[in-house]
Structures are given as C-alpha cells and as structure tokens.
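Q: Okay, next protein. This is DNA replication ATP-dependent helicase/nuclease from Bombus vosnesenskii. I've checked the sequence twice, so it should be correct. Can you predict the 3D structure?
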Amino acid sequence: MILRSLEQIIHYLSLIFVNNLALKTKDLNIRLTMKKVSQSAKSYSNNGTKLSQKKISVYFTKGISNSSTMNSTIEINAVNRETPRKRKISKDTDLTRVKIAKCDNISDACSIKSIHQTPRKQRLAIGNKDNVIDIFNSSGKNNDTDMAINETISEDIFITEYDWKENIGTNEYISTTCKSNKKQIMEKKALLQEIQPDNHLIKENKTDHMKQSVFGDKKREGIHSEIESFFTDDFKDCFEEEWCLNTSQINFNSLQRCKIIDVQREYNSILLTVNQEDYGTSDTTVRCSGFWKDAKVQKDDIVVIQARKENNQWIIDNSSGFLIVQPDALISGTTVSGALFCKRKAVLSEKFRKMESLPPFMGDSTPLVIGSLVHELLQTAIRKNISEVSDITMLMNSILQTTDTCSLLYASKISLETCRQQILPYVPKIREFIQHYLKDKSQQGINNIKNNFKGRIAQIRDIEENIWLPKLGLKGKIDISAEVKVNCKQKIMPLEIKTGKPSFSLEHRAQVILYIMMMSLTGQDTDTGLLLYLRENNIQEINSSHPEKRDLILLRNSLASYFVPKSSEKLSNLTSKSDLQMLDLPEPINHHNACSKCTYNTLCCMYLSKDSSIQLSETNPLVELGKKILDKYKPSHIDYVLHWISLLQMEESSQSSNNVTRYLWTLSPEKREAKKTCICNLKVIGKVTDCDTKYRHTFVRSNLDTQFSNINIPYMEFSDNEYVLVSTNTRINLSAGFIAQRKEDSITLILERDVTKYNINEFFHIDKYSSSSLFSGNLANVGGLMSDSEICEKLRDIVIDKKPACFEKGLPYPIIKASARILQNLNKIQQRAVLMAISAKEYLLIKGMPGTGKTQTLVALVEVLHKLGHSVLITSHTNSAVDNILLKLLHKDIDFLRLGSSTHPSLRHKSEAYATANCNTPSSLETVYSSKNIIGVTCYGAHHALLGRRTFDVCIVDESTQVLQPTVLRPLYSAKKFILVGDPDQLPPIIKNKLARKLGADESLFARLDSENNTIKLTKQYRMNKSIMYLANKLTYNDMLEAGDTSIENATFVTPSKEVLTKEEEWIQKALSSDISDSIIVLNTGCTNKLKENYNLSEKGYLDSDEVNSNIWEAVIVSKLVKTFLKVNAKLENIGIIAPFRAHVSLLKKVVAEDIEINTVDQYQGRDKEIIIYSCAKSITNFSDIREDLEVLGDHRRLTVAITRAKHKLIVVADKRTISQYSAFKKLFYLIENKNIIDLDNSYNGFCWKNLLRIL
C-alpha cells in the first residue's frame, strides 16, 4: 500500500495500536513484506537498515510487548530476501486465512457488515457455495466447527469473485474487497462499525498484483492526543519515504508461464523454483503435491503454473491449481479425450496418423465421413439462417456437389446416393434443433427428452472456432461457439456436435470440458458447455469441476511427455541398439476386442516385444495377439522398421529446435519478422470474396507503426502456395490458408474463414507454419511395411531383405517394334536402360551421372510405356524435377495429369484443379482420374486420394538419391514395379541430426539397393568439356564418364570481344582466358579475415553480415568477374553463381547488381550453365572451426555437384589455405595445375583490393 498522507497513516496505525491495547492479551502475527523504492536501497541488516524501517519494527514489537508469554515470533522480510530475523512474541498466534469477497457494488459489501459484529464463538461460517463468500477468520483449527451463513446474507447481494488471503491477522483485522465501477475498497471492521459507506473517500492505488484504497481523512474520535503525538514524532521520517508492496514475486493466482530453475523431489511432493526472466521477477517456489508430485519436469523446462497461496507458500494440490508441462506442445482436445480409453493408441495414432491413408490400411470410413458432412450441414444451415426441411435438403444437395465433398467421397469409396440416403434422416433433426433452440419455437420432440437442456441459443458467436492456447498446451476447433440464455442469464458456451448414438460418454464429456477451459481463457464468460447428439436431438449442459479439469490436464501432461521429441543430447547418450530402437509409449490396455481391431496393433506388439519394463499377464489379449501378429515377420523386418522410426525421431528432435510455430506466443510480431518468419502489422483492403468454401483476402502493410512505415511487403522466406497462419496480438491462428499471390505492396491469401467478420481492431500478422505432417507421413510409410498384404510383403523383400532385381529373359517382338522409333534418338547405353526397365519384373536402378541425358532417357521410357498401354506414376523429391519431365512429355503431345498445387505455369491446363473443375460427383471425379494413364506428383504429395484408389503398372522416381527411404516408400505402395533414377555420388537426403547421419539416415533407397545386378549406368555425358570432365572423373567417377561427341569435348568459353579483355588487369585476363586448358581457374584470395584491419567497410554496412558463412571480399571479386564477362558480351543466362551457405548467397545478391542466378549447391542440382563461379566464402585463422560445417564444404558429394554444373568455364574463388582443410577440396586443388591457381596479392598481376572495393 502506498502511504500518501501523514494523517491517514496516523489513523491507520493508531487503529491497530488501540485494538491491541483494548484486546490486551490478544495475539497478533504480522508479516511485513515491503519493498523500498529507492535508487540506493540497502539490504536489511544492522548497519544498512533505514531508520524508518527500524522504527516500524520497534513499534510493532512495543504493541505486543505486554503479552503474557514469549513463545511465538514476529517475522520481518528484507528486500534482499535473506534469512528473516525473528523476535519472540507472545503465545501461539491465531494464523488465519481470510476469504476476500469482491462484490458488484459498495452497498452489497456494506450490507454484510452486521455479520462482522457477531461474537466469534457465535459466528456461522460459510457454506461451500459460489455466491457466498467467507469474510471471517477461517483458522485451520476451527474450520471443522464453522457453519454456513447463507441465510444471513441477502439474496440481492451478488458476489462476483473471491480469493484467499493468508495470515492477514486475528479476527480483529477483517477486510472485505468490494468492486464498484472498476474500483475496489478495503474496509476494516472498526471503520464499518462507525463510518457509513458514503463517508469514504476512495482512491485507487495500483500495483502489479493488488488494488487497495486509502480511507478518508475523517479523524477518529477517542484516540488520545498523546498517542497521536507519539505517532507524529516517532514516525515522521517514515512518511517522508515512498513505499510500495513487494511485486518481485510471481503471482500465481492466474496461469503464469515460467522457467524452472531448480527441482527438489521429496517423499510426497515436488518443490519447483521458477522465475520469469522476461519480467524480471525473483525466484519463486511452488510446492506440488497429490497427483502433481510425479510431474515429469527438470531444470530449464518451461511450464505454466496456477496455484494458491497458503502460509506464504504457493501450493498446487488435488483441490486447487494446475501445472502444465511442455506447454509449447499444443495437443488437440480430441487426442486428450481419446486417450481416456487407451493412451497408447492415442500416442501411436498421433505419430503415425497418416498410416490409415495407405492402401493396405484403408478400411470403411463411412461413419466418419457421414458425421463430418452432417456437421457441415448443421453449421452451414445455422450460418445461413436456414430452418425449413425443404431448404435444408437443398443445402445438403449443394454441399454434396462441392469439390471438397466429391474428393472426400471418392477417397472413401462412397457413392453420392449412399451418402445422401445416410444424411437425409438428419435433415428433420437439424430443422427441429434450429427451430427450438435458435428460433425459440418450442418443439415437443425435444421437450419430451428427459434432462434435455432447457435454455435457448441467443446468438451464434462462431463456427469451427480455432483456439490455440499455450497457457494450457491445448488446441482445438469448437463446432459452435454460442451465446446461450439460461434462467434469464446469458453466457458463452461451446457446443460439441455428435452424430452417433447418445451416450454422454466420458470421452465426449471430456472434450466439452476441455473446450470450456479453453474458451474461458480467451476472455469469454464460459463455465459450462453443451453436448448435442443430433441423431435424437439429445442435448445436455456439461458442468466442469476442478477434479475433472485437473485430471484432464494431468492426462494432457502425460501425453506431452510422449509427443515432445527427445533432445539431441539425450539421444546421443543412448548407446545400445535396443535403447535406440525404443519409442516411449504408455502401457497398453487389456481389451481383447479393441486391441484385435486396432490399426496400430502390429506396432504396439512390436514395441511390447522389445520393452522389458512391461510384463503382461498371460490373460492379457496382447500376449496371444502379439505372437500371432509377429510370427508373420522376420526379425530383420522388425529391426528395420524400429531402426528407421528411431532415426526419424532423432531428426525430428534436431528440427524441433527450429520450430517457428512457438514464436507465435513467445515473440512479438516485430521480432518474428526480424527472424524472417512473419509479415507483421497488416490490414485487409477491399472486399473479402468467396472462393469455393474458402475466403480470398488481400493484405497491405499498415503505415501507422513508425518502425514499419515502409508499405512494401518483406517476403523473405515466404513463397507462393505456402501454408501460413493469420494471427493478431490477442488471438493465435485466427485462420490458416495458402499464399495465392505476392506483390510488392500487397499479399493475397486464401483462408479457411473470413477474418474481417470478427471486427478486430488490431493488426493482422502472417506467420510461417512448421508442420509435423512430414514426420508423421514418414513414420506412417515405415510402419506401413508391417501390413499383412501382398504389396507390403513384396516391399519388405526388396527394401529390407535386398532381394536382387529379376528380368524377363527376352522381350516380345511387339514391344521391341513399338519402341524402335522412340529409341532411335538415344545412344546405345540409354536404349539398353529403357529396355531393361521394361523387362524388369519388380524394380531397376538407373544411375544418371552428370550430363548423361537422364531426363531424355526417362521421357523415352514413359513414351514407350504409354504406347504399350501401361499406367505410369512419375514422382520425385521436388516439384521442379517432376515438372521437368512433364514439360518434355507436353511437347510430345502425351496426355497426363499433374497433382498438387505447385506447378509450372505451362502445366496449369494439365493440373488437377483444371481437369476436375466441372466434377460435382465422386463418379465424375473417378472418371477423370481413371482416364489419365500418366500421373505426376511429388513423393510428399503421394498421400493423394488417387494413389489410394489406383495401382500403377510402373512408378518412376527421379532424383531418388535425394529422397529419404521412408519418403520414397509412399509412391511405391501404389505401384507393381518401380524404377529408381539418380546418382549416389551427388546430393544425398538432407539430415540435420549428426547421430542419425552416422547411423545411416542419409542412405537413400537407391544407395541401399545399388549393385552391378540391380543398376545400369549412363556414362556418356553431353555437358562438360574435356578439362572439366577430367576433373570430375578423377575427383569422383573413376574415369567412367566419357564425352558424348567431340564438339562437346572441345567446347570452350568464347570471348567475342577479346580487345576489351586486353584492357583489363592481368589476373582478370587469366581468369577469363578462352583456352580450353584454362577452363578451370582457382582465384586464391588468401586469408580475407585479416583484410578488415586495413580496410574500413563498416560505413558501408557490410561487416554487420554473417562473417563466418559469408565473405564480402569474395563477393566483390565475383562482382568484378561478372561485370567483365558482360563487357566481353557473355549472356547473363549463361552465367551461374554458386555458394555453399545461404548467408553468402544473400550477400552476393546484394553486391552483384546484375539479374543473375545465384543459389546454393542444393538448388543447382540438376541444372547447368556455360560459366559457373563457385565462391566458397570460408576464410578463418582458427582451423578448429572447420569441424562445424563438414557436412557442407566437407561433403565430397556437394563439391561434385558444384563443379559438374559448368559446361565450359569453372572459376573457384576461395581462401585456398582454409578450404584445403577439407579433404575433398584438398584433392581438387591437387588435380588443378599450378598455372590455373592465381594468387590475389596486392600489386601482383595487377590486383588491388582498394580498387576492387570501389564496387561497393
């Protein structure tokens, strides 16, 4: 409390003093926790204590000194939180808990005052009801004798909030907190007896955790003048200083996000020491007991805590408080509620959630599909205010004809008529529900149902409201958010819709309770929810008690421990094979029927067989079921699947640290934009237009924020068709959608909902989204191998057991005749590759070395297969690789269908959207899909419904050496035979986790199966001249490469304007020499790290860049080379610049002004240019840093890709001494003649750094 007036303080202290004198032997326990507001605040000690603090201490000691015995202590806490000093006082004090009431108005609070005047022994304690608040002493020793006083308080009094306050004092110090017009007053019992409410002068004084009032200045009668004189003289200097309450402690009355500093586990509790670094709070201790004592937490974990304060300590126990662990792992409400039956299935289904879409696992999904469509029908009818049967029927027919519905029915193999017949019975039920609850037209059928909800829905707030709540670690989509009128009161409720038989099961109730919790924390007045079973219009109000909420949060916490990836450090500590293969899973249930039908029973039994910590009884159905299931598979099959699951888990742990989704609630929009993951402070312009079932928005930058006054959109890492989230400062993920168009000053999104309807007076922010679907898809692909089906058995034999490829002994004459014309333009090796692919029974590998005409060969193969009437699935790791083949087929007038949204502009008329634009039934959709014998899609897009319905004759995987083994499996499930194409000596799959790479995660399926029997090699190359080919052969290909013809072998960089080149410095003339022996040049910069000592570039702003992975000195050299190439009439499109790091690519784009292609090695895979400049960037003096990027500059395969992109000229810019520390480059420099290595020293060969830097 801030003490503003000397007289007010005199009155305040004198009241306490008089009370102590009058009560004589009454005991008082006072705990002062005060924080001195001063720049020179000192610790509480004998030498450093302020005189005013000592006087207050002395005063309170005097006030108690007349007590009879000296058994207890008075405790005074110092600012520096050292051990409190204690002084002996009278006998045991009456430690109290006072329940503070917050009322709607002063009169309500003051009407309670008569209750205060009752002698303590005659008092009636409070009942445990929400609208009656105990304002009396509630000491622990008398709790059991207190009685309810509901009758004492008038029914007209409305108490809105209450809270417990600890150790406020004896029953002579009773306070009531009242709220009126957003003000609160503190009233003392003595004042209530003598001062009427209208005599109060209320002054609001705010701190971080409390609001209190200061009483009016009316002088108290009966106070002896000597006492007032004593106060005035003895405490005068106290009141000249400013005081405030200690606010450094965290207030856990509401949910608070904190970091664990220390964990102490005791017998029946766990003691957490936490702080909030961002808010400068001091370390605070929280004791967790009861069910919370086993929480899986450790030092440095982030948690969310709500607790109550008892005896000056924050407590979480079975009756109050929450502890949310791993709050950044947002778990859906449906997953949590589903885990009530079987936690093990909940974890497996979340991790392997795409497994049910694989052909071997596709079962009857009719109930789920019908339920989903009925949801949509009811929600749309409510949104459009449709309430008659005929109109609802028309709406149903309209929904059944949408593209999304057709795709859903096609994927589920449900006919339109079957679907319509199953939805029709719900139409009158929807009409009945809307009429009764929304139109307030009572329906007898609903009234006749026992215990049905009696209220009415006054307004629909939202439909499919998306809530992400890191405070609880939960997320969910609420079917309907409704404003409901119950007993003349209105409140917001979630309405959960079910289409099955009414059961009001624990799972369904839990889902509603979770939504209640989430909605209440978004600022809505929500304490109950509605659960509707539409089939019979059975609807009940679901209440939520603390035990239910507690148990659901505990369940959510237990799931989080399984969903959050293990840290790389923990994984690196796993050494044994069995430890590495284990997946953390809950214990299984004992339910024969459920376990035998479970989609994940094979995975469940596999892990049970490896888990020695779980001992099942012989009666458990999984014992017999496990033996029956696992006997079908070899131990090598089980080991392979478990091994790859563990590798994927390792990779996920490495990439989870880069998960940008958590930035949505941990960083401001401006900080997220600085990290290039957000476009912040936007507003919607123009009209939001309907786009099928989506909404088209155009956003522009708001210029109201001075920091972001530039109207241009900073796209940075964003791209077209990217999935993004739209949020505000107060709501995370308001809607999600795709980027439709990017302009310099605007960005257009196709969103799931119209964000303008919320009337939000805030800026919008567009954020990148880190989806876990790639990992779950890969896990599903691996787990799917254990299906008991013909295709999976074949894949196990090939992929796991490495069954050799088999071929037909001879091809029939008709096949040879049909392919003759097509193959005549290929060389003999290419022709042989095509014929071997046709004769292969199950699979073939084609090794396409650089420039060997791999794409041309594949196009010829597709053309032959198409002529033979075979269906072909063309897939690859990237969209560009798929489009590259399809573009060549387009020129040959071969029909095909391109699946996916990211397609080449020239292929839009072959896209799925174009082909299915007029399809409004599943049968018409099937007709289109079945009519296309050639389908193009990426490996990640292979979970498309079409691949679940069709099996192709041949699957061709281009660039397969860049694809993870689990990723490439998905298209193989949908083919009788597959052809893998690639080069294992070029880029491998990208794996960030070092341990996973060490254990083989970067081994592609091509590399796994590569052998003389299984592989045919394309060796005639049509790209590089003989100098560059020689380098590639000696560095990587062991002289297997040969020139396709002499013209390519002797091709060189031609300089049309030689006279221009002669005017340049000598080092430039050598670098750009057109002599074939000078096709490869190394420009040795020396250690550029030392140059900044002699040249000041700070004023140009370039030294602020990443100096480790970018190099401004190399950038100016590259810029000079490009300018000179253009001077001698080289074409921009014939020049390419490659860099190993993105930071250096960004710098090069900034320095090299010309519109030239600059990219990383990975982006140049499959590309070529006449002239390639490779800038290595790295220049250091401490070679111990070399270890950090062995997978980039130290990767032999990346260097192979870089040098084989060049046709006629290759220039490497590098600090030769630094780069030679990498073995691949050391070998490269050894192979290059000394005359082709040019040292760039000042005044040597006309080189001058000072002149070069003028480019900047």
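A: Here is a summary of the prediction. Residues 778 and 1186 are 32 Å apart (CA to CA). DSSP finds 47 helices and 44 strands in the chain.
Q: Noted. On to the next one.
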